[in-house]
Design brief:
The complex is a heterotrimer of chains A (about 300), B (about 300) and C (about 500).
Chain A: H1 4-10, H2 30-40, H3 42-59, H4 61-64, H5 101-137, H6 139-154, H7 157-168, H8 172-182, H9 185-200, H10 202-209, H11 214-250, H12 262-270, H13 278-305
Helix pairs in contact in A: 2-13, 3-5, 3-13, 5-6, 5-8, 5-9, 5-11, 6-9, 7-8, 9-11, 11-12, 11-13, 12-13
Chain B: H1 2-29, H2 33-38, H3 44-54, H4 60-72, H5 86-121, H6 126-140, H7 143-157, H8 173-199, H9 202-209, H10 214-244, H11 246-251, H12 257-266, H13 270-298
Chain C: H1 3-14, E1 28-33, H2 48-57, E2 62-64, E3 71-73, E4 76-83, E5 86-91, H3 105-116, H4 125-128, E6 131-138, E7 141-146, H5 153-158, H6 166-179, E8 187-193, E9 197-202, E10 218-223, H7 227-236, E11 241-243, H8 247-256, E12 259-274, H9 289-298, H10 301-309, H11 338-347, E13 354-360, H12 364-376, E14 379-385, H13 388-396, E15 402-407, H14 419-423, H15 434-445, H16 449-466, E16 469-482, E17 485-486, E18 501-502
Parallel strand pairs in C: 1-10, 13-14, 13-15
Antiparallel strand pairs in C: 2-3, 4-5, 5-7, 6-7, 8-9, 9-10, 11-16, 12-15, 12-16, 17-18
Helix pairs in contact in C: 3-6, 9-11, 10-12, 15-16
The chains are: A mainly alpha (about 300), B mainly alpha (about 300), C alpha+beta (about 500).
């Protein structure tokens, strides 16, 4: 069974940041080794750092924002940020309806994270289920799942997402569900391969013989072995979902206003791109760092948990 | 080998068929197309008339097979918006998208392969870090934002290139960069990883031991082997790029198939949308098929499967 | 798929060609459409872009002078009402179509009979369905007969009803006309790529008439879907004329001092419509007059106009545009008064407000501002921003409790083009008030101007009293052009290419 199309489409080979440890590593336990690698991995640390800031901001949004993100003031529209000659009343200025930009940015962090998390979770569930079924049972089920993965890969994601949102109306739920239903392929590919590998291991075969149920084998034997792969793909797909939501919003078909998503803020600021470019730059930079940190986190986790893939 | 090709081909056709069935039912599920055809300023009377003409009340399965039967003969129906044959519309616009895809992919390969190789040869060097930087930035920067920034800098501020349109080669510079950059990170990473793997392989060590020149080892042995997966990734990415050119085409006013797809979505032009989804998925299927054959040809072990 | 065509188009794009900088020297105006025009045949598109081409490439029998608002003869030299339903026209002699075909009564008869026939599927039925048929009296005398008394006939004959060459149209049909348009107008279309590119050249043999000869020799129109890109091209000098620029961007362009930015009123009006008839929810809050009045009080329409819509827009209380005939302006109104709105909501039984689905299809910031005002008085909103077609369908089915809508009246300067469209019991009538229906149907059949004015005023007053709609504001259009260009904006949203000139 050849599935080059699947693996080559989806698997991004590890980007190794090779560093040879100087202290004798063989004296440490595997867990300590991993920690050691993690602490030396600059990309991972950077990703973790930026990501934590964004998560903290999202959690403590009500404490950080000095204004209501929904409160409009048509008399105070598009006030520039403090560093561009504005006042500290609105540190990041106000948007086209006079809403405080800082407040919208910090509440927007919640929405963007939420979109990424939920979409990736839906994808992870679908993909894991299909991948495990294919890998565990093999045979016809495997053929069927592989076929579905092929079909899914052949559907132009942006186009289909746009069409569905355009036809069914955009809302947080629709966007999240559509993205969740479209991004499961990589999970399925990797879970399928991983399950096949694990199934060949003797102890799983033994467990099967002993009559362990599928969920039991899944949760006890398979998932722990592929957790690191799953986490890496989860981060990738989360970043993917966030970027796609922004693209949908850019084309006017994302989350509905007045919800402050970063994609929506970019789309609303786009109109004044040539005149008030900070309106698009602020959420654009925020989105950039969010996606960057998620990706670096994912890469870092892969490097740290699967050192054999490094060189 | 022929058996293998035949099998892959059958599978590819089945995939195309399923994609078209799914998208057809999806598109037709969403409400009354008559209003879409009649347009924004149409009155109730106009809409009733359209409904009478097209007969959208028939079961969806019948409508689908009718469409499929015609599509098989090359008749993709008429655009509801332009009232022109969809095949003409697409033929007219696919050229610019394919050109953009080819240019974008060439740009990506020309940037990604040399940098990936250089990065692998000297890990942790300046160029390794630069390539890492380019690839992480490329993954995180939204293409619409990147495109608009390029217009501001290179077209308005510096006046070097036109902002939009497709009448000369200069018009393609910015869109190529934006679209190409989209595919760069994955290719660069794969090249680098592949090179690292090959360079540490036994036969390269043997070659070194035999005293072959570094350059010869690099290009004759290492790169040749590392490039195999890159080619198949590029083929797949090509399929993705053709579908992903929507944003780029809309910003740079390139009247390509991606832009047509987006406009058709906002106009509820179902026959055009339907045909474009089919064609974009065919592209993807074609390129992955190509990649499979290429791989099988280069690596005979795969053919037996 | 036509492979040869594909190869060819790719080759064409590859070919080198210089960027053309157009200006006074080349006597070419470069401009852009934001959307792709579906068909250049004026009867088979419903877009404003199509109307612009219509006015410059074709002629109607009549012409409405945008300065005086009076009708003048265009392809007809004179006209008289024979009775309530019949008009007789004396046609201008010696007029030729762009393909050399002479214009005479046969062309009028063919055009009218073709478009009035429903089977031919003209897209804007409102523009043509009032006509029953046309009869030839002699070569230059023709009668048009309406289905029923139709007082707005002159307006339509001066606007969307363009005259086509009978022999050519019979031969090529709507598709041929869309590919190679032929009219009598001051410009002829010499190059056309459907939806993408139109080149108009001056018609040197134009008969003149009330439009006069074109003053520039060429107009090159591309489709550029992104306004930012259009402005970028404008900065670069590769576009000379921008239209429909959003208010904020127009303001900034004007402030730069390098361009002429002109604002003109438009016939389009914005309004909020509410489910007063209870089609969506029989017992819903929108069926209660006090709630609707509260909404009227809650929205600061003046602030929206001043901050967002800007330009020459004004707040209205009439369910029509002030420039339209019979659109009375001395109507009751409701001030912006959030406290009173809250009080009214409490009286209606909603002291804590309620939550409702709010719909819109364009001008998202305006809709957002309105929702902001509603939130302030305790009405929570779930926003649905839909494609026009989708919202239109939902509304027709009575599934929309409250929505922000606009209507452009096909540029027809008569209140019947909006009020009668929405208050005579059709699918889009959210009020379904029998009294208003009665008044409007009587008014639409009457040819007595005083009677019509009186009935419309009654209807418009009741619409405000019952707060079926919250009429919001008139729209406006912003144009920007290079300082070399000469263009006078008119209040009907029409860009008449033949008035383009150089300073």
């Amino acid at each position: 069974m050849s599935d080059t199309s699947l693996t080559s489409a989806s698997a991004k080979k590890p980007d190794a940041v090779s560093k040879k440890g100087k202290t004798p590593a063989h004296q440490l336990s595997p867990r300590a080794k991993m920690l050691r690698r993690a602490l030396r991995h600059k990309g991972l640390l950077f990703g973790l750092f930026v990501m934590s800031i964004i998560v903290i901001v999202a959690i403590f949004a009500p404490l950080i924002a000095t204004h209501d993100p929904y409160a409009q003031s048509l008399l105070a529209r598009m006030k520039p940020p403090a560093f561009m000659g504005g006042t500290w009343e609105h540190p990041l200025g106000t948007d086209a309806l006079g809403r405080d930009y800082l407040a919208r940015l910090v509440y927007g962090a919640r929405i963007s994270l939420l979109i990424g998390l939920i979409a990736a979770t839906i994808s992870a569930c679908i993909g894991t289920f299909m991948g495990v079924m294919a890998g565990y049972f093999g045979g016809r089920i495997d053929l069927l799942v592989t076929f579905f993965i092929n079909v899914r890969l052949a559907m132009p994601v942006v186009l289909v997402a746009l069409a569905v949102v355009a036809l069914f109306g955009g809302s947080l739920y629709v966007v999240v569900s559509v993205l969740g239903l479209l991004l499961w392929d990589r999970f399925a590919v990797v879970m399928r391969a991983a399950t096949m590998q694990v199934r060949k291991l003797e102890y799983v075969a033994a467990a099967q013989v002993l009559g362990a149920s599928l969920p039991r084998v899944l949760f006890k034997d398979i998932l722990p072995n592929v957790m690191n792969h799953l986490i890496v793909i989860f981060t990738l797909e989360m970043a993917h979902a966030i970027i796609l939501e922004a693209a949908l919003s850019f084309l006017g078909l994302g989350v509905q206003p007045p919800t402050p998503s970063w994609g929506l803020m970019i789309s609303e600021g786009k109109e004044m791109l040539l005149f008030e470019s900070w309106l698009i730059t602020i959420p654009g930079v925020a989105l950039f760092f969010l996606v960057l940190s998620i990706n670096m986190l994912g890469d870092g986790i892969r490097d740290v948990t699967a050192p054999e893939g490094r060189n | 080998m022929y058996m293998y090709i035949l099998k892959r081909l059958g599978l590819a056709l089945l995939v195309a068929f399923t994609v078209s069935a799914i998208s057809f039912s999806l598109l037709f599920m969403a409400g009354d197309p008559a209003i879409a055809i009649a347009g924004e300023n149409a009155s109730a009377e106009d809409i009733q008339m359209v409904n009478d003409r097209y007969g959208f009340d028939r079961p969806i399965v019948i409508q689908y097979f009718e469409w499929l039967g015609k599509a098989a003969t090359g008749d993709l129906g008429n655009s509801w918006y332009f009232d022109l044959p969809v095949s003409d519309l697409i033929a007219d616009r696919l050229g610019v998208t394919m050109l953009l895809g080819l240019l974008g992919m060439s740009f990506a390969l020309l940037l990604a392969i040399p940098m990936g190789v250089a990065a692998a040869v000297k890990p942790n060097s300046l160029i390794d870090r630069a390539s890492l930087f380019i690839s992480v930035v490329g993954q995180a920067i939204p293409s619409f934002w990147f495109g608009l920034i390029l217009i501001v800098v290179f077209s308005i501020k510096l006046g070097l290139v036109p902002a939009s349109g497709s009448t000369s080669w200069k018009h393609f510079i910015l869109p190529t960069i934006v679209l190409g950059y989209y595919a760069t990170p994955a290719i660069m990473r794969l090249t680098r990883a592949g090179m690292l793997e090959v360079l540490s392989a036994d036969y390269i060590r043997t070659a070194r031991a035999k005293g072959l020149s570094a350059r010869k080892i690099m290009f004759k042995h290492a790169l040749r082997n590392a490039i195999i997966p890159v080619i198949s990734l590029a083929a797949v990415q090509m399929g993705f790029m053709l579908g992903g050119s929507i944003v780029v085409e809309s910003i740079f006013a390139l009247h390509g198939a991606g832009f047509l797809a987006w406009e058709s979505i906002s106009r509820n032009d179902l026959p055009t949308m339907q045909a474009l989804i089919l064609i974009f998925s065919m592209f993807y299927i074609f390129f992955t098929f190509l990649a499979d054959i290429l791989n099988a040809w280069m690596d005979p072990r795969l053919r037996i499967a | 798929m036509k492979i040869s065509k594909l190869v060819l188009s790719t080759a064409v794009y590859l070919a080198l060609s210089a960027v053309s900088y157009a200006d006074k020297a080349s006597d070419t105006v470069n401009m852009a459409f934001l959307k792709e025009l579906e068909s250049a045949d004026v009867y088979f598109n419903t877009a404003r872009e199509g109307l612009l081409l219509n006015h410059s490439v074709w002629d109607g029998l009549l012409y409405r002078n945008p300065e005086t608002g009076e009708y003048e003869g265009n392809l007809a030299e004179s006209w008289t009402w024979i009775n309530d339903t019949t008009i007789e026209f004396k046609l201008r002699q010696g007029v030729k179509f762009h393909n050399g075909e002479p214009f005479n009564a046969d062309d009028v008869v063919y055009t009218v009979n073709f478009v009035a026939n429903k089977d031919n599927g003209v897209k804007s039925q409102t523009n043509v369905s009032w006509m029953d048929h046309a009869e030839k009296i002699d070569d230059y005398t023709v009668r048009i007969v309406a289905d029923a008394p139709f007082p707005a006939a002159e307006e339509f004959l001066a606007g969307p009803v363009a005259m086509y060459p009978n022999e050519y149209y019979a031969e090529v049909g709507p598709k041929g006309m869309a590919a190679h348009p032929v009219g009598t107008g001051p410009f002829k279309i010499t190059e056309l790529e459907p939806g993408k590119h139109f080149v108009l050249e001056k018609n040197d043999d134009y008969f003149g008439g009330p439009k006069g000869m074109a003053k520039v020799s060429k107009i090159d129109i591309r489709t550029i879907p992104d306004m930012n890109t259009q402005i970028a091209e404008f900065f670069n000098g590769t576009l000379d004329f921008l239209w429909n620029i959003p208010a904020d961007q127009a303001e900034k362009l004007g402030a730069m001092g390098k361009f002429d930015v002109v604002n003109a009123p438009a016939i389009r009006v914005g309004y909020i419509t509410m489910d007063a008839a209870g089609r969506f929810d029989k017992e819903g809050p929108m069926t209660k007059k006090k709630v609707r009045q509260a909404i009227y009080h809650a929205i600061d329409r003046k602030a929206i106009v001043e901050a967002l819509v800007k330009g020459s827009s004004t707040v209205i209380d009439s369910a029509c545009s002030p420039v339209q005939f019979a659109c009375a302006q001395d109507l009751p109104t409701y001030d912006y008064d959030p406290a009173k709105a809250k009080a009214l909501l409490a009286e209606a039984g909603y002291p804590d407000g309620f939550t409702i689905d709010f719909y819109a299809y364009r001008d998202r910031p305006y809709a957002e501002a309105m929702m902001g005002f509603l939130n302030e008085v305790g009405i929570k909103t779930n926003f649905s921003y839909l494609q026009y077609a989708a919202l239109r369908e939902k509304r027709a089915k009575g599934e929309v409790p409250i929505s922000f809508q606009t209507w452009g009246s096909y540029s027809i300067a008569d209140a019947s083009a909006i009020t009668s469209e929405f208050f005579t019991g059709g699918d889009w009538d959210d009020a379904r008030d029998p009294e208003i229906m009665e008044w409007l149907t009587t008014a639409d059949k009457s040819t007595d101007k005083a009677v019509r004015k009186d009935l419309y005023k009654k209807a418009l007053t009741k619409i405000v009293d019952e707060a079926y709609w919250v009429p919001l504001f008139t729209y406006n259009v912003n144009y920007a052009m290079s300082k070399e260009m000469d263009f006078k904006a008119t209040p009907d949203e029409l860009v008449r290419f033949f008035t383009f000139g150089w300073k």
